[in-house]
């Protein structure tokens, strides 16, 4: 406060600097965008991988298994053993099939930390559905594949009862996991859309660096 030549008192201007934000807000400001960007990349990768996986299971259910059912038992076992050996030795398939779950979970966590709650929830739904599909695979399809491999050379087999089990149990389990993967893909697509919207809104609300 000061006094001018007329004796009037004038208030000095006070600082208009905003108070320091809380530590949590600082952390969000510094790390929210990178986390959101990483979540978007993971969501896109997971969507492509899950789409390929769901497509493979759908193809087996709609074309491969019905086609094999029209063949004789010897051909059925030979073909399935060949399919299983090829898939199990393919590292690209292993990465896609197993990598969907951790990538989706990581995306859900990152979106949650970035404040994209809706996208995080749909990513979490995806993870749950895909986890169930993995449990079906581990509980039914893989053990039966192992039994088929243990049966040995089809030319020396005398008991083809395992073929009937494949035509019923394996096919039903594959249909279930195909449906689960398709549902998971729908949820993941929704998560990706919501993530994009949230990111666009956040970008629009962020002050321009040239203003």
From TrEMBL:
Q: Name one Pfam family in it.
A: Anthrone_oxy
Q: Which UniProt keywords apply?
A: Membrane, Transmembrane, Transmembrane helix
Annotated membrane-spanning segments are 41-69, 89-110, 122-142, 175-193
InterPro entries assigned: Anthrone_oxy (IPR013901)
Q: Which domain of life is it from?
A: Bacteria
Q: Where does the record place the region Disordered?
A: 1-26
Q: Compositional bias of type Basic and acidic residues: which residue ranges?
A: 1-11
Q: What is this protein called?
A: DUF1772 domain-containing protein
């Amino acid at each position: 406060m000061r006094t001018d030549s007329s004796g009037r008192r004038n208030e000095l201007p006070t600082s208009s600097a905003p108070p320091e934000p809380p530590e949590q807000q600082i952390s969000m400001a510094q790390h929210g965008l990178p986390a959101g960007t990483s979540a978007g990349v993971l969501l896109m990768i997971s969507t492509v991988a899950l789409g390929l996986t769901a497509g493979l299971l759908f193809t087996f259910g709609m074309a491969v298994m019905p086609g094999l059912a029209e063949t004789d038992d010897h051909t059925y076992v030979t073909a399935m053993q060949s399919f299983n050996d090829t898939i199990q030795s393919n590292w690209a398939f292993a990465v896609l099939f197993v990598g969907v779950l951790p990538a989706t979970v990581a995306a859900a966590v990152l979106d949650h930390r970035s404040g994209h709650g809706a996208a995080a929830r749909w990513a979490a739904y995806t993870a749950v559905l895909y986890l169930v599909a993995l449990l079906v695979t581990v509980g039914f399809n893989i053990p039966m594949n192992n039994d088929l491999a243990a049966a040995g050379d089809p030319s020396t087999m005398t008991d083809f009862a395992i073929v009937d089990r494949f035509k019923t149990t394996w096919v039903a389990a594959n249909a279930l996991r195909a449906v689960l993967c398709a549902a998971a893909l729908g949820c993941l697509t929704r998560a990706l859309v919501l993530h994009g919207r949230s990111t666009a809104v956040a970008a629009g609300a962020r002050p321009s660096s040239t203003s």
